[in-house]
């Protein structure tokens, strides 16, 4: 039986922090949970970062097979936690056990996916340009490129995915896959879950004979722990999922360091959902119930929650709003992740209900407990949406805002007006393709993922997935935090010019000892 101790894991050691004492919280029963956790002081942050730095050179050169086996061992160790992990995550987050089991499957699958990528080695981007000594007017040197890891990465787990976007989530898995040691700042909303998963990683480090500094878990009782971590000179990049204010604060700190570092923060998105006239005509009922499910899924605590529904005003559109509203109202109240998130939701919904030009079309009913959240559907006009910037802000929870446009031109204007997004969805039929074609170039500039006739909640971990987008969806529109390309965030290219064969890394040696697909004089080949 695994017993929580409230300790941090600093390299191979478990240490009870003395800077402050804190507890996890059960948002359903409204009670503190055992055990007490000890928070890190600056000395422990320094120790974790220094260990990570000293592990870096040894870790980045372990054979790819050993690195892949390490990721798979973490997956095995997480699975071995069995119900203990699910029970604890359920207690701390109020998320249903079935959802958490699915999330565990995704977390483990993601680790195995990155293991397969590490073995295959395409991420190294091995590229060789042969020397051209006879070229005139100037000879070309021998040039070879490979990607190398950036160095130790700080990871901030997200509250809404205590497994898949937390201690062993996508940021950690992709950073470890890239060859970077990781120091995680545990999310205060799921401290016990964090300790369990961190121990699974620590055991994998030991079992695989890796340097202890490859992984550490820090606990903090205030912003100071995260600030000290991001400011530490050993840290070379940051992965974050959470609020816009948190992400911006960390990006600001990282930019002000003596040596600025990249921050990959996934922050805020309202995921515009365009219902075009043909879709409304042909699929009104199915679309309405699918949308109500998507808005309220997981109490709306998804970064891909459809928080903005854009349509051309019509009798059908009004009917659609009624059906979506009725379906949302039937969902009742549900407990949110934390009382802080629930409080912010209630305040934001009240503010929106009081905004001139906004109508509350439907609201859930039921006991409005301390951490409960009732669904709410709002309606406004495009002219109000275009002039009131606060209507474009994310409300984290089971709510959405319908924007009714007078015509196609106004719908296009709304598309132009929205901020950067993780996703944009087009609900359409073939007779809508002309309008959709006008929207496409706009949506490409706005979002990391464009969906046709689907719902944005649900993010596949695969080669082609993009979970990113222009600000404020993320702090860096060139990146994704989910999918194979997530590794790119923690790599940089190095070019080797005229190096003797003895000093070349294996990935770019003449005889291709790693059997990689490589670009050789502009041609992709396996030799
Ligand atoms: P958060 O407040 O941004 O916290 C996320 C992590 O960052 C925590 O570990 C927090 O730890 C740390 N942090 C936040 N601000 C910091 C600062 N100024 N300096 C250093 N560290 C900082 O996010 P949350 O608690 O998960 O949720 C709050 C809100 O975030 C939600 O209401 C929602 O709007 C949004 N959210 C968005 C997403 C998304 O997917 N985009 C996901 C979850 C939440 P400390 O508090 O201990 O410093």
TrEMBL record:
EC numbers, comma separated: 1.2.1.26
Lineage, uppermost ranks: Bacteria, Pseudomonadati, Pseudomonadota, Betaproteobacteria, Burkholderiales
GO molecular function, one term: 2,5-dioxovalerate dehydrogenase (NADP+) activity
Broad enzyme group: oxidoreductase
Gene3D superfamilies given in the database record: Aldehyde Dehydrogenase, Chain A, domain 1, Aldehyde Dehydrogenase, Chain A, domain 2
Superkingdom, natural source: Bacteria
UniProt source species: Pandoraea eparura
Protein name: Alpha-ketoglutaric semialdehyde dehydrogenase
Domain Aldehyde dehydrogenase: 39-427
Pfam family, one: Aldedh
SUPFAM superfamilies associated with the record: ALDH-like
Record key words, sorted: Oxidoreductase
